[in-house]
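CO-FOLDING WORKSHEET

Operator: S.A.
Ligand of interest: NAP
Run index: 332
Mode: holo prediction, single chain
Checklist:
[x] sequence pasted
[x] SMILES validated
[ ] output reviewed
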Amino acid sequence: MLPVTQLEVLVVGAGSVGQVFARHYQLGGARVTMFVRDKYRAEVARGFDLYPLNKRGRAAVRFDGFDVVADAKELAGRRFDQVLLTVSSPALRGAWLPELIRAAGEATIVALQPGLDDRSVLAAAGASEARLVQGMISLISYHAPLPGETRFPKPGMAYWFPPLSPSPFSGPAERTAAVIAALKKGGLPAKQHRDVPHSAGFPSAVMMPYLVALELGGWTMRGTARTGKLALGGRGAREALDVVRHLLGRAPFGLGALTRPRLLRAGLWAARPLIPLPLEIYLKEHFTKVGDQTREFLDGYIAKGRSAGLPVAALEQLAGELAVARGGGAAN
Ligand SMILES: NC(=O)c1ccc[n+]([C@@H]2O[C@H](COP(=O)([O-])OP(=O)(O)OC[C@H]3O[C@@H](n4cnc5c(N)ncnc54)[C@H](OP(=O)(O)O)[C@@H]3O)[C@@H](O)[C@H]2O)c1
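OUTPUT RECEIVED:
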């Protein structure tokens, strides 16, 4: 019988998403290496405390026992089966990505970024279609405690898998199946999807204009509705959805309804008791952290809409107000 070799996984980025995926790969039996910026190396090497919110109890679970690297050169002589990219969309751009993909040999590249141009960035960096598996993140994870949270005995990464929402993956059949199997084995909900590259762009198109509206409304739903920003966000979401439809075709069923602010609010109100974290505070913390990504997505919808001759007035208004709110002056 052939010896069974341990799955080797390189997780790029050891932030909120990276820690969770890495832990579950390890729980599934994989040997995990974290690829981090040099400034985080010592901190990451000490390991992490995590709080899986789907489980009862508030004791932190320890996650360590992985390797840490901070440069593609350190990968020389190593073999990886899967390389998971957990960094934000803007962070994909840079000389580090082609270096890393070259160093990763024949490994499957698993990308979680939903940006409309991210696949071409990946292709240009050497991640060919034949080895690229694309996924969508359906979990929520954050540095706990959030402001006002008192339930955690010490700081750690809290995370939650929403029920009935496994992270979808698609790509070359064998490679995709291997990614899903490894994650599921470690308890991370994952499923096969027909076409993630097609579907991934739509949820962001609806979400990003609302998130800008929320930021302009002071990160509370009430403030956002009272100041009229929620309605503006809804108009922006419709415009962005039309831009993505123009580029990718039909939107997933039901998504268009969320561009109606009233339906969105009603949905959030109904879901709130099921979500085991303070949603508005999480949104503020998370989307302040990845604020450059929100801005990049918004600018992308505007540029693509303009060149297709589609209306983008609400998106432009959101972008202009966002620039002023962030202290950068009016946008063009
Ligand atoms: N957290 C969530 O609940 C959630 C949910 C859905 C989707 N997402 C998406 O997932 C992506 C990651 O989110 P996150 O919450 O994990 O962000 P995060 O906590 O900021 O983690 C990303 C990590 O990657 C690091 N990084 C950036 N470029 C790198 C590079 N070249 N090499 C190595 N490490 C690098 C970042 O370092 P620096 O801090 O120094 O830049 C950061 O530590 C974002 O696009 C986000 O919108 C997150």
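REVIEW:
The chain has two domains: 8-199, 201-325.
The longest helix spans residues 229-248.
[x] output reviewed
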